[in-house]
Amino acid sequence: MTRMRRGTFIALAAATAAYPRKARTQTDADPASGSAAPALRVLLGRGDATPDPGGNGFSFNGRAYRGSFTREPDGSVVNVVDLEQYLYAVVPHEMPPSWPPAALQAQAICARTYVLQRSNPRRAYDVVPSEADQVYGGMAAESPAGRFAVDATAGQVMRFDNGYASIAYSSCCGGHTEASADAWGGAFFPYLAGIVCPYCMQSPNYRWTATVALQDIAQRFGQQLAAAGTLQSVRVVDLDASGRARTFELMADRGSTVVKGSAFRLGLGPRVVRSLLITGLRSDASSQSVVIDGGGLGHGVGMCQWGARGMAQAGRNARDVLAFYFPGTEIGRD
Ligand SMILES: [Zn+2]
After folding, report:
1. Which of 286, 291, 321, 325 has its CA 20 to 30 A from that of 200?
2. Distance between CA 153 and CA 172 in Å, rounded?
3. How far is the CA of 165 from the centre of ligand 1 (A)?
4. Has residue 5 got a pLDDT over 70?
């Protein structure tokens, strides 16, 4: 999962749609908590772990964590934590806690569903605490609004058929969400097919312009351009169904090369080319640069976070938000 901070851009990998419920037997309740909520295992890595003298969790590399920890044979520390308490620290990382409660609740349900889908009894841990899954830094990240969103949706997950729905979300879709199959290939998910989103216009990234020097592009794609000579201009070759650029052509004085949309975006930086919803692209000869107009921030698949905010501000609840962005899924209890 590629991710940026504060409700900006998160790609939650669409793995399998249906994770068998019985396979979660190793995530039974934390015996210490006496709670029925499943325990989650988060691989923190190597470092110093010390139980809190007051019996309130432990510290790892100077940070306070809820729950308990185990050590793997290689010395790695695994945090065993109540799923809901894990979410306390995750939700405010993924979405600003100042956003409306309904948006935060939709975020909490997304985060919960994602992590349950990732639970894997065949491994020593379920998730990692980084953007590869969801960012988790312990209790310091918690906030009252985040905890409220988790508690208000306790146990709620998104389901499709008999399994968990595959969850994805990103900061701002720019007006049309992206189909997961177009973004990442793989299976077609009917609830991740891409929809028109009229709710995210307040995002500062709803429309943007980036100016990139030809020299920077040439440098990044030097290998592909080697035989083609000096880069002159760039154009979008084709679009997918949502209007996102599928491929770019880099045109040089002796030839050209074609670059996949995702490679172009990541190559120039996902904060420079904020999305592949390119609305205009022109070469500026005087400044030897390419001016890119675009919409949105992130991959655009699944829930549009700024759209969730807009829906919440318009009085919709978390169920409305998730039914809109994941049509055909149901909210159920785990
Ligand atoms: Zn949107």
Report:
1. 291
2. 23
3. 20
4. no
The proportion of the chain whose per-residue pLDDT surpasses 90, expressed as a percent, equals 79
How far is residue 131's CA from residue 32's CA, in Å, rounded to a whole number? 29
pTM of the model: 0.85
Cβ atoms 304, 324 nearer than 8 A: no
> HSE (CB half, 13 Å, CA atoms) of 65?
30
Residues 281 and 304: beta-carbon distance below 8 Å: no
Asked if residues 173 and 21 have their Cβ atoms less than 8 Å apart, the reply is: no
Strands (E), the chain: 3-4, 9-10, 39-45, 49-51, 58-60, 63-65, 68-71, 77-82, 156-160, 163-164, 169-170, 208-213, 231-239, 245-252, 255-260, 278-284, 289-294, 303-304, 330-333
Please compute, for residue 74, the number of CA atoms within 13 A of its CA located in the half-sphere on the CB side. Answer: 7
Q: Taking Cα atoms as reference points, which of 167, 298, 168 lies closest to residue 244?
A: 298
Residue 258 in tokens: 């074609």
How far is the centre of ligand 1, averaged over its atoms, from the C-alpha of 303 (Å)?
8
How would you classify the pairing of strands 169-170 and 303-304? Answer: parallel
Distance CA 107, CA 40 (A): 18
* The one-letter amino acid at 196: V
Ligand 1 centroid–CA 81 distance in Å is 33
Q: How far is the CA of 169 from the centre of ligand 1 (A)?
A: 10
